[in-house]
Amino acid sequence: MTLNEGVDKRFIELLVHHSFPFKKALDIGCGTGNYLAFLESKSFVVNGIDSNPTNIEMTQKIATKSSNIVQADMYEFEYPQNVYNLILSVSTLHHGIKKQVKFAIRKVYESLVPDGKIFITLPNLDASKTLETYSSKTGPEAGIPHSFSPNKKSEICSHNVKTFP
After folding, report:
1. Which CATH number describes the domain made up of 21-123?
2. How far, in Å, CA of 15 to CA of 60, rounded?
3. Three-state helix/strand/coil letters over the chain
4. For position 59, what pLDDT does the model report?
5. Going by C-beta distance under 8 Å and a sequence separation of 6 or more, which residues neighbour residue 76?
6. Nearest residue to 36 via CA among 10, 63, 68
7. Where do the structural domains in the chain lie, given as residue ranges?
8. Measured CA distances, 42 to 62, 72, 115 (Å)
9. What was the pLDDT predicted at 142?
């Protein structure tokens, strides 16, 4: 297994086609640390947040000492301003209500340095109109809103790269 296995190819293209002078990234919803480890292999200092304590524990085991991995709710996290030149959120930011998502996106943008880049994946909008939001009742994601059916995720997600000035 290679470090880029399971990393969206469009994310890799983003890294190839843009320069990151000081390589500091934030992974929102870092999960088990796949993207974090990949970015560290590319000389990034990466901080990560995730609401799941098991994910945090797993990520801390593979992260370097320069990374700060924190258990936090992405909608309540105190994002530092003008710190990161790359922020990513893979299949994460949409796990809330519209007000929370808008707030988080604004805070993410404020955390970027000038010319910083954002990589966010979201469910396909057309497909999401036909599905209902659900919340797991048990497990590590209990109570977290999801905007797609877990059985149909691969059918309805579209991954788009958007970069903002």
Report:
1. 3.40.50.150
2. 23
3. CCCCCCCCHHHHHHHHHCCCCCCEEEEECCCCCHHHHHHHHCCCEEEEEECCHHHHHHHHHHCCCCCCEEECCCCCCCCCCCCEEEEEECCCCCCCCHHHHHHHHHHHHHHEEEEEEEEECEECHHHHCCCCCEEECCCCCECCEECCCCCCHHHHEECCCCCCC
4. 92
5. none
6. 63
7. 21-123
8. 15, 25, 19
9. 60
Reported confidence tier of residue 98, pLDDT bands at 50, 70, 90: confident
Could you tell me the pLDDT band of residue 101, with boundaries at 50, 70 and 90?
A: confident
Confidence of residue 146 (pLDDT cuts 50, 70, 90): low
Which pTM was predicted? 0.76
CA distance 71 to 73: 7
Question: For residue 144, how many C-alpha atoms fall within 13 Å in the half-sphere facing its CB?
Answer: 22
Query: Rounded CA gap, 160 and 162, in Å?
Result: 6
